Amino acid sequence: MMKKPLYGKDAVIPEKLSIAFLGQGPWENGEAIRLMEEYFSKHHKENEIVMKRVRGVEELEGHSEDCNWVIQYAGGNDEGVRLPQGVGMIHKAGAKAVILTEHDVDDSLSVALGEADFIMRLDISSEPGERDWSVAKGLLRGLFNVTLQLKPFDGMIRGTWQGYERADFMLQGREGFVIFPREAAPGRPWIWRAEFFNDFPSVDVALLDRGWAIAYGRFSHMYGCPGAILLMRAFQSFVTEMFGLADRTVLFGFSRGGLYSFNYAAAYPGKVRALYLDAPVLDIRSWPGGKGNGIGAVFEWEECKAIYGLSEEESANARVSPLDQIEAVAAAGIPIIIVAGDADVPVPLSENGALLAEKYRSLGGELELIVKPGVGHHPHSLEDPSIVVEFIMKH
User: Fold this and answer.
1) Do both 136 and 165 map to the same domain?
2) What would you report as the CA-atom Rg of the chain, rounded to the nearest whole angstrom?
């Protein structure tokens, strides 16, 4: 049975937490732990996150169950996993046991490590100089649901993307960046990728060439939950003030990005001028829940419920998905264009985009639906992006 994550609703960083790294593991040289400490010291100064290495379980006595996690490494090779010892003793010491492994966390491994509170798979880089950072960012993702690409930094990093100027920054502990056109269009318009930046970017690049900026905030694996929407609001305020971008944006919701884009438009309709939804997830019960005709995703469903603070039973009537927020967006008159394949298996069109189109139009909303016959969840977008580009330019 899949273990649910340790983090809870909105993936809020605990005010106080003690983490012990027990025995041998990929943290032995101390650099991965140092990088995690640097992240918290730069971006969560108000939180007291203490990390240390311990040799044996006997050193754990006196730790509080509510604020302490113990990390162990389940190493091994292709012939099997070397199971860690002492999970029961960790619980007796009042701590939660977390198992870190480089192996796939399937049902058999979950059974073998059944007493652990959480089992986390970690991809450790073999690239020179990247091993420690891959461990640190993997732990931040698995333990706190913080997704990072860049090592901790202050201020702003100026660079380029495909020859265009790019500015990277950190905001409330999350990465973000803006890519600037060579010459801004009147009013300094911009598009906002909710997820999967640089995947199938034909529309993004076409608008960039026409003077639109591109923005991205890395709120991955938060499934458009209320906490993510608050982070997005802070992000929009920051980029409009810092870079002088237009007050309203066009949100791009690719796949699960549909959860973020639509929920944000429902919460802050005055800040959104249009929505481009591509094979969008619009109901968490459809994906990752898999409660309809879709295949779902087991770990992502556990993660999604944890992020929303829902039990399995509560999720059935929670009304937290975009399909539950249609009236607010329609009342604001936000135009929507949807591109989706009618053979999408993980995110069935009939349970997501088609339902939105029917209800939105019935409420008098402007919505253009482009269905790709015989196409699945991928590829996203269109070979000729001009239809989407013209729709966005028109609005």
Assistant:
1) no
2) 22
163-218 confidence digits (pLDDT tens): 999 999 999 999 999 999 999 999 999 999 999 999 999 999 999 999 999 999 99
Tokens representing residue 55 in the block: 């040799």
Whether pTM > 0.85 for this model: the answer is: yes
Q: What is the CATH number of the domain that holds 124?
A: 3.40.50.2300
As a whole number of angstroms, the distance between CA 164 and CA 371 comes to 32
The label of the residue with tokens 């770990």 reads: 299
Please enumerate in sequence order all residues whose Cβ is within 8 A of that of 311, keeping only pairs 6 or more positions apart, or say none. 305
β-bridge pairing 96-101 and 68-74: parallel
Cis before 379? omega within 30: yes
Task: Give the C-alpha separation, 142 to 128, whole Å.
Answer: 23
Do residues 123 and 168 share a domain? no
d(CA 249, CA 267): 14
**Which amino acid appears at position 310 of this protein?**
L
Distance CA 58, CA 286 (A): 46
Q: How many residues does the chain have?
A: 395
261 in Cβ contact with 251 (< 8 Å) = yes
